[in-house]
Amino acid sequence: MTDAPDIPGQHQDKMPADEYKMDPAPDYTPRHPGVGKLKDKVAFITGGDSGIGRAVSVLFAREGAKVAIAYLDEDKDAEETKRLVEEEGSEALLIRGDLGVKDHATKAVEEAVAHFGKLDILINNAAQQWIDEDLTELSEERLRRVMDSNVMAYFFCTQAALPHLKEGASIVNTTSVNAFKGNDTLISYSTSRGASLAFSRSMAANLVDKGIRVNAVAPGPVWTPFIPGSMPDEMVEGFGSGSPMGRAGQPWEIATAYLFLCSSDGSFYTGQTLHPNGGMRVGA
């Protein structure tokens, strides 16, 4: 059983927020020695600078993958993730910019392929969220920003990656427990995660004959920069205590689902969703 750290009230007026400012720091560290499950693979990981993306980057590196880390503008977090990947004996390429802009998403994937020579894994993970309890107060600008980050970027990165993905390749899209149960204070975010779930299932059917597997991971409450970046102090304090396990998940606990789906362990999985959510019952 993982102990639940005390999470005090805190807020950052920034989305995405910065991991290095969080208290306590999220736990991204893999728990087991690598056994080469992703040896010689190349992964393109969006939002790889922090949170779940950082944990996935470090775990993939431990298992032998080289990683391209695409992120918006969190340079300090991204540099730290690069250092952590290199500490695992692997190589990281940092690619900065807005993946919700198709031209940048295309160039980012092409840069990764040019640098590493190939692409085997695409992790569409970067996203943004805000509290929006009252739909009438949700601005068009905010709504478009959520959809550009959480939906359009997934389309654009996948479009750019497909010409480089061969049989045996894997795509994993981050969705959310909120795509299944809804959330009255995260309306736009939950809607966007429903889109990423439908995208995953549709692309799985579309690509199965090409031998490319597409799956999704639907985390529950996880201690990442999303939380202080989108919630007021009083909502952050004790975050995750309402889950059946009585705590928030840590990024390392979520990253293992991505490893399973991208390695040969998950070779009979496509169009599926894994639910690391602390015991919440949702429709699969």
TrEMBL record:
Residues 11-24 have a biased composition (Basic and acidic residues). InterPro entries: NAD(P)-bd_dom_sf, SDR_fam. Pfam families: adh_short_C2. Transmembrane segments: none annotated. It comes from the Bacteria. Keywords: Oxidoreductase. One of its GO terms (molecular function) is oxidoreductase activity, acting on CH-OH group of donors. Residues 1-34 are annotated as: Disordered. Belongs to the short-chain dehydrogenases/reductases (SDR) family. This is NAD(P)-dependent dehydrogenase (Short-subunit alcohol dehydrogenase family). It comes from Palleronia aestuarii.
